[in-house]
Amino acid sequence: MTKKVGVLIVDDHPVVRTGIRGMLEGQPDFEVVGEAVNGEEAVDLTGRLNPDIVLMDLRMPGTGGVAATSRIRKEHPETRVLVLTTSDSGADILRAVEAGATGYVLKDAPREELYGAIRAAAEGKPLLAPDVAAHLMERVRWPSEEGLSGRELEVLEHVARGKGNKEIARTLWISEATVKSHLLHVYEKLGAADRASAVAAAMQRGILRL
Q1: Residue 209: inside a domain, yes or no?
Q2: Total domain count for the chain?
Q3: Are 138 and 132 in contact (CB under 8 A)?
Q4: Which residue range forms the structural domain that includes residue 194?
Q5: pTM greater than the 0.90 cutoff
Q6: Mind listing the pLDDT tens digit for each residue in 199-210?
Q7: Residues 181, 182, 188, 191: is their CA dihedral positive or negative?
Q8: Angle at the Cα of 96 (from 108 to 158), degrees rounded to 5?
Q9: 180-195 pLDDT, tens per residue?
Q10: Last residue of a domain, one of 114, 141, 168
Q11: Under DSSP, is residue 128 helix (H, G, I), strand (E, B) or coil?
């Protein structure tokens, strides 16, 4: 008998988790091994349940999907992370891929597309849903003149929410020195002198939306 693909569902909405579980359990080659409500729980359950695939939402309270993806890929490299989210933002896609996500699928995608993405991820094949790939290619084709990297944008978003360097470092699982380095690059690229002016410049140019 062929081994089933073990899937851990990560989403902060119970209705969404129930719906996804129902869809996956209708497929003979999938087995839902658990559910997590945030990134922190996802990392913990990945270590305990050893799923083949973590189906990861991005925007959740506490530890978000990008930070959780990065930790899972570092601590459990044999587990693949497939992002399933409502966000088709080029910045979100880049951050997820940079964190180690194998694929990226939107929640409104046809269920057969999701099934195919899970099967591809289980085989270690990178996959972006067609509409997601289009958004990503558009971002690559027409990059902002500021040229902020995905990680620099992520740091700036946390700054815009009022977080200090220590809290940002803890959230993103990087050092404070790395946060400071990213901010210096942001200041240089935006021509800003400090945190407030960097956020203002990014919002004015449309590269940061809160």
Answers
A1: no
A2: 2
A3: no
A4: 150-204
A5: no
A6: 888 887 778 765
A7: negative
A8: 105
A9: 999 998 988 888 888 8
A10: 141
A11: strand
